[in-house]
From TrEMBL, chain A:
<feature type="transmembrane region" description="Helical">
    <location>
        <begin position="366"/>
        <end position="388"/>
    </location>
</feature>
<feature type="transmembrane region" description="Helical">
    <location>
        <begin position="198"/>
        <end position="217"/>
    </location>
</feature>
<comment type="subunit">
    <text>NDH-1 is composed of 14 different subunits. Subunits NuoA, H, J, K, L, M, N constitute the membrane sector of the complex.</text>
</comment>
<keyword id="KW-0472">Membrane</keyword>
<comment type="similarity">
    <text>Belongs to the complex I subunit 2 family.</text>
</comment>
<feature type="transmembrane region" description="Helical">
    <location>
        <begin position="33"/>
        <end position="51"/>
    </location>
</feature>
<feature type="transmembrane region" description="Helical">
    <location>
        <begin position="6"/>
        <end position="26"/>
    </location>
</feature>
<dbReference type="Pfam" id="PF00361">
    <property type="entry name" value="Proton_antipo_M"/>
</dbReference>
<keyword id="KW-1003">Cell membrane</keyword>
Automatic annotation (TrEMBL), chain B:
<keyword id="KW-0472">Membrane</keyword>
<feature type="transmembrane region" description="Helical">
    <location>
        <begin position="142"/>
        <end position="163"/>
    </location>
</feature>
<dbReference type="GO" id="GO:0016491">
    <property type="term" value="F:oxidoreductase activity"/>
</dbReference>
<feature type="transmembrane region" description="Helical">
    <location>
        <begin position="31"/>
        <end position="50"/>
    </location>
</feature>
<keyword id="KW-0874">Quinone</keyword>
<dbReference type="InterPro" id="IPR001457">
    <property type="entry name" value="NADH_UbQ/plastoQ_OxRdtase_su6"/>
</dbReference>
<dbReference type="Pfam" id="PF00499">
    <property type="entry name" value="Oxidored_q3"/>
</dbReference>
<feature type="transmembrane region" description="Helical">
    <location>
        <begin position="6"/>
        <end position="24"/>
    </location>
</feature>
<feature type="transmembrane region" description="Helical">
    <location>
        <begin position="56"/>
        <end position="78"/>
    </location>
</feature>
Amino acid sequence: MNFAPILPELILTIGAIVLMMVAAFMGKRGSNLCSWASVALLLGAVATLGGEPQHAGALFGGQLVADGFSAFGKLIIYLCAAVAIVMAHNWFERDFEHAAEYPVLILLSAVGMSVMVSATSLVTLYVGLELQSLSAYVLASYRRTDDRSAEAGLKYFVLGALASGILLYGISLLYGFTGTTQFEGVAAAFTRDGTTSIGLLFGLVFLLAGLAFKISAVPFHMWTPDVYEGAPTPVTAFFASAPKVAAVLLGVRVCLDALGPAMDAWRQIMTFAALASIFLGAIAAYGQTNIKRLLAYSSINNVGFALIGLVAGGPQGASSVLFYMAVYVVMTLGAFLCVQRMKGEDGEYIESIDSLAGLSQTRPGLAFALAIFMFSLAGIPPMFGFWPKLMVFNAAVTEGLIALAVAGILGTVIGAYYYLRIVKVMYFDAPAGQPYARGGNALETAMIFLFALIVSPLGYLLIGPLGELTGRAAGSIF
Amino acid sequence: MIAVLAFYLFATLTIASAVAVIFARNPVHSVLWLIMAFFNAAGLMLLLGAEFIAMLLVIVYVGAVAVLFLFIVMMLNIDFAALRSGFSKNLPFGLIIALVLLAEMVVAVSAWKAGPVTGGVQPAATTQPNIEALGELLYSRFLFPFEIAGLILLVAMIGAIVLTHRSRGDARGQKVWRQVDRRPDEAIKLEQPKVGEGVKL
C-alpha cells in the first residue's frame, strides 16, 4: 500500500497524537509549543498538497479519492485551521487550563474535514463528518466556566447528534436500496431506477437534510446564531470557515457525483435551501445587537449564495462554488479577527454592535479594515467580494435559471443593509462608551492587513490564478 | 432436535424475563431481569447463525448499557413511588401509545406474511463465519474508515478530559524521581533481633 496520497492526513494525525502527549505531560507550559507546532504541521500538510500523489485517484478500494477537488478543499481547510490556532493563542493567554489541547482538537478536526472533502463512499463520508463534528462540539464549549459557551456546546451537540441520525438514516436507506456505499454505485442505481424508487428518494432527502444541517442552510440553521454567539471567538471563526467549506465541498461532491443522475430531485431541495438561506440570513440579521450573532446570520446568507452555484451544477457551477467559498473564508476570518480586537481596557471582550460607534475616530485602522470586510461581504462592486457572487449568478444564468439569479440578487440588496449599518455605526455615530484597548498581537494585525488586502480591489489580481485552480479542481469530479 | 429444544428454552426464558422486567417492583431487579433477557436473546441469535450480533448483544447491551442502567438506578435514588403517582393522569396517553404499537404489530405480521422486502441485492451464501467475514472487511476494504473511527474515539476521550478535568491544589501526585532515586540501603534495614527484645524502629 502506498501511503503517499494520504500524507497530509498522516502528518496531521501523528502530529496530533504526539502533541496530545506533550499537552498531557507539560500541561499549561506546553501551550506555546503545541500551538506553534500545530501551525507548522498544518503548513507542512499544505506543502505536500502540490505533489503528484495528491492526484492519485481512488484509494483504499474506492473509499476515498485524491484529486484536484480534495486537494483544493484541504488547502483552504488547513489554512483556516492555522488561522484559528493563531487567533486562539492570543485568546487563551489568560491562564487557561486546557489551552494546550485546543490545537490538538483543531488538528483532529482538520483530519476529519480532509476525509470529508475526499470521501467517495457513504461510510467514509460519515466517519469524516463525525470526527469533525465531535471535535467541534468540544471546541464550542471550550470555556466551560462560561455559561454561554457551555450552552453553545450542549445545543450544538444535541442538534448535531439529531442531524447525524437523520444523515445516517438516509445513508442506510440509500445502502439498502442500492446495495452499495460507493458514490459511483449509488449514481449507477439512480441511473437505473431513476427517482421513481420511493426508497431512493427518501434516502436522498434525508442525506441532504443531514448535510444542510452541517452547512447551516435554512431550514436547518437554528443552532447557528446561538452556537456562534456562545463559542469563544476563535472557535466561532473556525466554525464559520473550515467546517463550512468542508461541508459545502462534501455537498457538491455528493450532489454532482453520487446523486448526479437524480439532479432534478435535489435541484428543487437545493433551490429552496439556497433562497431561504439568502432571505432568512438577510432579514433575520436586522434586529441583531451582537456582532457574533450578526456574523452567524451572515454565514447563513453566504451559504445560500454558494448553493446557487451548486444548483446551477456542471463544471462551471462547481467551480463557482469553490471560488465563492475561497473568498468567503478570507472575508469572514478577517471580520472575526476584527471582532477579536473588540476588547475593553479591563481585558473583557465586547460583542455589542453599539460599542463600535465612532470607531473611525478612535481606531481608524481597525474601522477601515472592518469596513472593507463588510463592504466585501455585502458584495459591493469595487471590493473582491463582488466577484464570486457574480460568478455564482453567472453560472445560474448560463444554466437558464434566470429567476433564481434574480431572486438571489434581490437577496444581496436586502443583505447589504445590515453590513452597511455596521459601517454607518463606525463612521457616522458619535463615539460612545469606553474605547477598546490598544495593542494586540502583531501577527494578527498582519493577518488583518493581508486579508483586507485580498478582499480589496487589489484582489482582482487573484482572479486568474484562483479561477484556474478552482476550474481544475471542479473539473476533476466530472 | 437439540436446536429446537434450545430455541424453546431461550425463547421461553426471554419472554419470561421480559415479563419479569415489567412486573418486578424493585427497579434494580428489573434491570437484572433485563440482563437475563439480553443473554437469552443472544442465545437466539446464535441459533440463527448470527454470532456477531450475539456477541454484540452481550458485550454492548449487557456489558455497557445494562450496567449503566444499574448504576443510574442505584446512584440517582429516583423515587419510583412518586413516578407511579401520575398513573391515572397519564393513562390515556399510555393507551394511545399502546394502541399505536398494537396496530404496528398487526401491520408487521401481515407484511411478514406477504414475503420479504428485497432491496436489490441478496447477501452471498457462504460458509465463512460472519465474525471472520466482518473482520476481514474491516481490515481490508474498510481499513480507512475503521482507523478514522478510532480517531473519533480518541477525540471523545480528549473532549471528556478537557471538559471535566480540573487540576486541584490538594491532589497528591506520584513523585517518580523520588521513587527512582531511592537506594536499597536507605529503604531496607536488616536487623538481628535478640530473643525477647523485639526490633527498634
